[in-house]
Amino acid sequence: MKPSILNLLKKAVASLAPFQNLVLISLAAWAIHILLRVMLLFRSNPYGFPFVSKPDWFIFHAVCLDFLWIVNALVIFAVIGCVIAKTAQKVARAATVAKVTTILYATFHAVILPFTLLDNEVQRFLGGHLSFGLMDTYKDTSSIAMFYDYVANDLSVPYLQFVVLALMLPATYGIYRLLRKLYRPCEGFYVKKSVIAMLIFYIASYLFVYVIWTGNARMTKLRPVVSLIYKDLFEAEKTEGLSEDNLGAYRTTYQNLWQRVEGDSDWNFSDAKEGNGLPLYRVPSAELLNSEKLKAQREMKPNFILVLMESQRGLNVGYMNPQIQPTPTPFMDSLAAHSRVWMRMHTSGVPTTGGVLSTHLGIPHHTRLAQATDLAHITLPSFVSTLTDSGYSTHYMSAADPAWDNLGVWAAKWYTALHYNREREDDSTFMDNAIEYVRDTLSKEGKPFLATLMTRSNHYPFNFAAGMTDEEKNRPLQERINVTMGYADRQLARFIRAIENEEWYKNTYVIIMADHGFPLGENGVSTMNGGGFSNISWIPFFIHGKGLDAVRDTTTASQIDIGPTVLELAGFAVPNIFMGHNLLREHTADSVPEPVAGLSLGSYSGYAALGLDSYRFIAKYPSQEETHIFAEGDLRQQNEITGNKQNEEIHKKEDYLKATLDTLLKISDYSLERGL
């Protein structure tokens, strides 16, 4: 048996001999792709900021990913060539087929290389990959002129893109010719050793990228052009889109529900041109614009400090769960006791990109797309951009690398400045810097400010907190998260205590919340994409500041409500596309029938959830083949009421919630993809 297998292998290698030039073309193309990756990862973006803050965390994966797809392409062309050579022996010689295959393979790489350069530049300028959707967005000729202007003003190296474009193909051919000279025929197949080495490196690359050191955000950012094209053509879930009739029906349903939840008539939906025809676009009434309440808030010019606590589960926060003793979050509990607290707050997207983007945009995360990357070219305002445009100094400070998952691209659209240093990734050193910058710089600029702080230490696998003992690191995850949440809580306490006696602090609203929770086995789920249960969605949220009484509010809410609420406190009412509501509103109008106690909406990696009419509805989305219903007050979701055959009311409510969830998410996806 063994000799026969060896003979088959020898025959297979011999059959590939006519296609040996494909190996050399592959190696030459790989060398140029490595150069392009270096030029992308180790340069700044056109605005003078690093494209990635940790290029060493990306470059080896980039090299391996390019090698994998190049070898895959090599095998496909070689196999097709061999098949044609075998079936066409009577009409053409194998050498002729090999020559044609080589020409086609070289042409393939000659096309892919310029598109790779273009994709790199699109990432540097817009933050997202080259895609059919992006090309459709920027299909007019003015985009070409705009791109030229960007290249001319590139703060990295102006016009370098054109130089590389002109030289990359000649350089590839030069490397190919050099490899031809270096190799000499050996037993009729002069790259046999290279093929063996490539096979070994292929296996090693696969294990390194997909097993040893994985990372979805990194893989998304490093996605090669061939993968982008394949994904757009074959793998991307095709949506049927919204016909005018469907859009009209969804628009009416959504807007009626929004007004019912809002409970007053201070806002009007508009199809005005500046709203780009979006069903979400609404404008404030004259009464709201002229209200004394908003005027008083504007005159205050309050500051804002928004702290996004990484993976801070509502299930482990002391003030939300008094039965937990000792509490992992003593400082947060003490601050909440003197704050306006929302006890039924839910995240509107996971992971961090989902939570952060939905908080800023007032729209839940996209149900299908990797929004941070796939929609980076879309123009979408946030509550921060409103503050920035209104004279606020806005700053995004992160202990985690915002370039890692492309959040830096979005934050740069809205904030005055971004702050990150890889030497300050522990919450302790991060908070030291935040204290110094907020207290000694922002507060002395002579203008109101917003400082957004994104922590890091309480992150899976919950062993990042500085000073953790071996005993603590060896505890089960369910116990270890209490240690890291406690550590993050202590750093938050240091930050607040360092600034709370400053005079400007009296005119500052402090907003404490989480980006999302984390499933640790509750409801049978222990992965981030395993459902939308409260272990991942229920988060702490409270606001501490002037004029806010210590109240525990049981209004159903979610992160899409943050933007409208902050702008209310700042005294601004501007046209917007927020799907959320101002959580500080007072229902004063009788014109809206049946006002309800809030709405929550979220999209969670293949699942979605809706809180409405005293129910929390969770469904696998878009199929909705798996559904769960809980009473909204059952925040730990211990008593599921789905599937009660005896309760016709529940069945009717489930149908209504299914239809409502589908309507809201179709509207939100449509709006995210369209932008303003």
Question: How would you summarize the topology of this molecule?
Answer:
Blueprint (H helix, E strand, L loop, with lengths): L1 H15 L3 H22 L17 H29 L6 H33 L5 H6 L4 H11 L7 H23 L9 H21 L3 H6 L3 H11 L8 H19 L4 E3 L12 E3 L1 H4 L2 H9 L2 E7 L20 H7 L3 E3 L2 E2 L5 H10 L9 H4 L8 H7 L3 E6 L8 H8 L2 E3 L7 H14 L8 E6 L15 H4 L3 H23 L8 E7 L19 H4 L3 E4 L6 E3 L3 E2 L3 H9 L29 E5 L2 E6 L2 E6 L6 E5 L16 H27 L2
Helix pairs in contact: 2-3, 2-4, 2-7, 3-4, 3-8, 4-7, 11-24, 17-23, 19-21
Shape: globular
Average pLDDT, all residues: 88
Helix count? 24
The tally of domains stands at: 2
Low-confidence stretches: 588-595
**Helix content percent band:** 40-55%
Largest sheet: 8 strands, mixed
What is the CATH class designation of the largest domain?
A: Alpha Beta
Over the alpha carbons, how many angstroms does the gyration radius reach?
28 Å
Please report which band the strand proportion falls in: under 5%, 5-15%, 15-25%, 25-35%, 35-45% or over 45%. 5-15%
CATH topology of the largest domain: Alkaline Phosphatase, subunit A
Q: Based on the structure given, which CATH architecture of the largest domain is correct?
A: 3-Layer(aba) Sandwich
**CATH homologous superfamily title of the largest domain:** Alkaline Phosphatase, subunit A
What is the terminal separation in angstroms? 67 Å
Widest β-sheet, arrangement of strands: 7-6-8-3-9-10-4-11
The structure class reads alpha/beta
Can you count the beta strands?
16
